[in-house]
Amino acid sequence: MPPKPCLRACANASPARPDAMDFVVTTLLNALTLISILMLVGLGLAISFGLMNVTNLAHGEFVTVGAFAVYFVQSIGGSFWLGLAAAPIAGAVVGCILEFAIIRHLYSRPVSTVLATWGVSLILQQGLELTFGLGAKPVTPPIEGTFDLFFTVYPAYRLILIAIAMVTLLGVVLLISRTSFGLDIRTVIQNREMAEGVGINTRRTYAIAFTFGAAIAGLAGGLVAPLAIVLPQMGVNYLANAFFVVIVGGVGSIGGLVAGSVFVGGLTSVLNYQISPSLAQAIVLLAAIVAVRLRPNGLFNGAAR
Amino acid sequence: MIARDRNWLLVFAVCVGLTIVYPFIADGYQLTVIRDALIFGLFAASLDFFWGRTGILCFGHAAFFGIGGYIMALVTLNDAIPFASLLGMMGAVTGAAFVAAIIGYFLFFGGIRGSYFTIVTLAMGVICQQAAVSWSSVTGGDSGLIGIPPIEFDVGGTHLDLSQDLPSYIFVSAIVAVVVLALWSISRGRWGTVLTAIQDNEVRAAALGHNAPLRLLVTFVLSAAIAGLAGALYVCMAGLVAPDLSGLLLSTEVIVWVAVGGRGTLLGPVLGAIFIQRAQQTISSFNPSLWPLLLGCVFVVIVFVLPDGILSIYARLKALLKGRRRAS
């Protein structure tokens, strides 16, 4: 397996002014960058794993597909923003095919889902490698330069990333709480039989929710592409972390998703200053295992499902 | 003795017979190929002992393989330690069992089962590989450790040197045969029955007085210990240890070996490991990046076409013939 610099790359921007306030603000913003990405990746997983009870090990590949979409659009001369628009579409297409071809046949066989989605993940990785060739793919950010935030100067693109992630998350919250489709999803989650009884097409709802989660993960991949090292194997880094976001935070609420992302992302960013990134990731995952033991229902339990 | 047990012993005897005959028809290189495949077969059997009996999928079993391998490497590379091979193997088994005991305690007594267990063990594999890469002063980092000596024993005055092909082949085959037979007798007895009860309905099994978390924990620890033993054997035969040995790819390959061979049969996974390793070597010699692609396809095909492994083809054919006879 290749080395894992992606999380470090998106967690650490080099501090410019070495004073204490600057350090704190930079660390906070680095953490916020990582937390934003984890929230977007975890969102799709919270839908499939947390709500539909589908263990999708190909979820990391949605991120990869999104990042490659940006690379592909840029390589044929398109702008970054065009690529960023293509990223969620690419994620959605792959997610939709996956749901249609495999996952919907295996809702009652959880172990089989694990095996089949892992197989799909390997196929997608090798497919991307055969199509685009070996080695890391360059993706240029839309804006170079930094932004003066009074306490510190910070790369402008990262601030945009955080903003887009927050707006997306807010949009999802509104979609689920305010629209009739959101109502359908909540109904199906609470009681599938009853939802069918009142005339909701549960298969369709599941399919749309799954595709939607894949699209958000694709968007996350597109956003992270200029910061990370774009490789066919990059998805697995996000996979384990995103699962822990969902498990640690608690299944089935946006609050849990935020809590889990803050736990995993915050800890990773802080540790990355002290020790090597692989050791930092190992420690974060260990801490997550302990957290799961102590709070089996998630950090944010008591939240409305 | 019921018919299923008799069939199993029959297949086991045939396999042992083939293993004994093989050195007479194969050259040294072919022997080492089968020897290494048998070690991975032992690893697959260890996963099957847990997954097949409890129905809980461990997605990071290579972590124990790697831990065993690294402990063996560190002990045998240290000149100050006497009886290095023996102590190394004991250390590998104990080390893997110890790690499994800690992780298993957190998970089983925390009520974590099913998909959650799979995800946590997946992370465990990632952690082990990361630790092996980043703790480079001990593990040698990305490049691992090389120059691990072959196994040597002094048993009752006679010196046993396993640097040659044939002795090491015999040694490995004997260990695999003994361990598989032992695991089989454990899992067909009372222990296995209780595990099946827990798999079917844990609450009911607990109500009947069985300490379900403890049973699962002990099974997991035993399974990890054997994986550690397989890792220790492997590094001595290969002469090197690298972070890949605890990586996700190996963790998933072992799942395929078990799934192809037939989960819960113990013998099937060993055969599955040997067949798939041979296939892997043949395919990788054409194009190395083709193998993961095919591996992915195998995962998908197994789930849809052969959920019970290749050994189930025979049972299916029999059922098909029976059905046809009845129809005609």
From TrEMBL, chain A:
Under InterPro entries, the record lists:
ABC_transp_permease (IPR001851), ABC_UrtB_bac (IPR017779), BCAA_transport_permease (IPR052157)
One GO biological process term is: amino acid transport
Q: Which domain of life is it from?
A: Bacteria
Membrane topology category: Multi-pass membrane protein
Pfam families associated with the record: BPD_transp_2
Quick one: a GO cellular component term? plasma membrane
Q: Which residues cross the membrane?
A: 23-47, 54-74, 80-103, 115-136, 156-176, 206-231, 243-267, 279-296
Q: What are the GO MF terms of this UniProt record?
A: transmembrane transporter activity
Subcellular location per UniProt equals:
Cell membrane
Identification of the protein by name: Urea transport system permease protein
From TrEMBL, chain B:
Q: How the protein sits in the membrane? A: Multi-pass membrane protein
Ranges in a coiled coil: none
Pfam family name, one:
BPD_transp_2
Asked if the Swiss-Prot or TrEMBL record annotates the protein with the keyword Membrane, the reply is: yes
Q: Which GO terms describe its molecular function?
A: branched-chain amino acid transmembrane transporter activity
User: Is Kinase found in the keyword set?
Assistant: no
Query: Gene Ontology terms, cellular component aspect?
Result: plasma membrane
Transmembrane domains' residue ranges = 7-26, 32-51, 58-77, 83-109, 116-135, 166-186, 216-242, 254-276, 288-315
Q: Which InterPro entries match?
A: ABC_transp_permease, LivM-like
- Major location, coarse class? membrane
Which superkingdom heads the taxonomic lineage of this protein's source? Bacteria
Where would you find this protein in the cell?
A: Cell membrane
Ordered alphabetically, the record's keywords are: Cell membrane, Membrane, Transmembrane, Transmembrane helix
Q: What is this protein called?
A: Branched-chain amino acid transport system permease protein
Q: Which organism is it from?
A: Mesorhizobium qingshengii
